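Support request, priority: normal
Reporter: lab tech (M.K.)
Component: structure prediction queue

Hi team, I submitted a job for DUF2642 domain-containing protein from Paenibacillus septentrionalis yesterday, and the status page still shows it as pending. I've pasted the exact input below so you can check whether something in the sequence is tripping the parser. The sequence length should be 71 residues. Please let me know if I need to resubmit or if it's stuck on your end.
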Amino acid sequence: MISDDQLNAFRISGELVRVVRDNMESNDVKGIVVAWDEESVMVRRPNKRVVKLSRTYIYIAASEERPTLVE
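Reply from support: The job had stalled in the queue. We restarted it manually and it finished. Here are the results:
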Protein backbone atom coordinates (compact mmCIF):
# COMPACT_ATOMS: atom_id res chain seq x y z
CA MET A 1 0.00 0.00 0.00
CA ILE A 2 1.28 3.46 -0.90
CA SER A 3 2.14 5.78 1.99
CA ASP A 4 0.67 9.21 2.70
CA ASP A 5 4.10 10.78 2.16
CA GLN A 6 4.42 9.29 -1.33
CA LEU A 7 0.89 10.39 -2.27
CA ASN A 8 1.55 13.89 -0.94
CA ALA A 9 4.77 14.12 -2.99
CA PHE A 10 2.83 13.14 -6.16
CA ARG A 11 0.08 15.68 -5.33
CA ILE A 12 2.46 18.56 -4.68
CA SER A 13 4.61 17.92 -7.75
CA GLY A 14 1.58 17.46 -10.01
CA GLU A 15 3.46 14.57 -11.61
CA LEU A 16 1.54 12.15 -13.81
CA VAL A 17 1.19 8.78 -12.07
CA ARG A 18 0.47 5.30 -13.41
CA VAL A 19 -1.77 3.02 -11.36
CA VAL A 20 -1.05 -0.63 -12.13
CA ARG A 21 -4.10 -2.74 -11.31
CA ASP A 22 -3.28 -6.05 -13.01
CA ASN A 23 -1.08 -7.65 -15.68
CA MET A 24 -2.84 -5.91 -18.59
CA GLU A 25 -1.24 -2.58 -19.44
CA SER A 26 -4.50 -1.41 -21.04
CA ASN A 27 -6.13 -1.50 -17.58
CA ASP A 28 -3.63 0.99 -16.12
CA VAL A 29 -4.92 4.39 -15.05
CA LYS A 30 -2.81 7.50 -15.68
CA GLY A 31 -3.52 10.81 -14.04
CA ILE A 32 -2.74 13.27 -11.27
CA VAL A 33 -3.28 12.49 -7.58
CA VAL A 34 -5.97 14.79 -6.19
CA ALA A 35 -6.92 13.38 -2.77
CA TRP A 36 -6.85 10.23 -0.64
CA ASP A 37 -8.08 8.63 2.55
CA GLU A 38 -7.24 5.41 4.41
CA GLU A 39 -8.68 3.13 1.72
CA SER A 40 -8.77 4.99 -1.59
CA VAL A 41 -7.06 7.54 -3.84
CA MET A 42 -8.72 10.04 -6.17
CA VAL A 43 -6.91 10.43 -9.50
CA ARG A 44 -7.81 13.02 -12.16
CA ARG A 45 -7.40 11.52 -15.61
CA PRO A 46 -6.35 13.57 -18.69
CA ASN A 47 -10.00 13.77 -19.81
CA LYS A 48 -10.76 15.61 -16.51
CA ARG A 49 -12.74 12.72 -15.02
CA VAL A 50 -11.90 11.74 -11.46
CA VAL A 51 -11.49 8.06 -10.60
CA LYS A 52 -11.56 6.55 -7.12
CA LEU A 53 -9.00 3.73 -6.81
CA SER A 54 -7.87 1.40 -4.04
CA ARG A 55 -4.63 2.21 -2.21
CA THR A 56 -3.58 -1.43 -2.57
CA TYR A 57 -2.75 -0.91 -6.27
CA ILE A 58 0.79 -0.02 -7.41
CA TYR A 59 1.36 3.73 -7.83
CA ILE A 60 4.44 4.82 -9.81
CA ALA A 61 5.48 7.86 -11.80
CA ALA A 62 4.21 7.55 -15.37
CA SER A 63 7.74 8.23 -16.63
CA GLU A 64 9.05 5.07 -14.91
CA GLU A 65 9.05 1.64 -16.54
CA ARG A 66 5.93 -0.40 -15.88
CA PRO A 67 6.61 -3.29 -13.46
CA THR A 68 5.60 -6.83 -14.40
CA LEU A 69 3.29 -8.51 -11.95
CA VAL A 70 3.69 -12.15 -10.93
CA GLU A 71 0.49 -14.14 -10.62
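Residues 6 and 13 are 11 Å apart (CA to CA). Residues 4-61 form a domain with the SH3 type barrels. fold (CATH 2.30.30.100). Let us know if anything else looks off. Ticket resolved.
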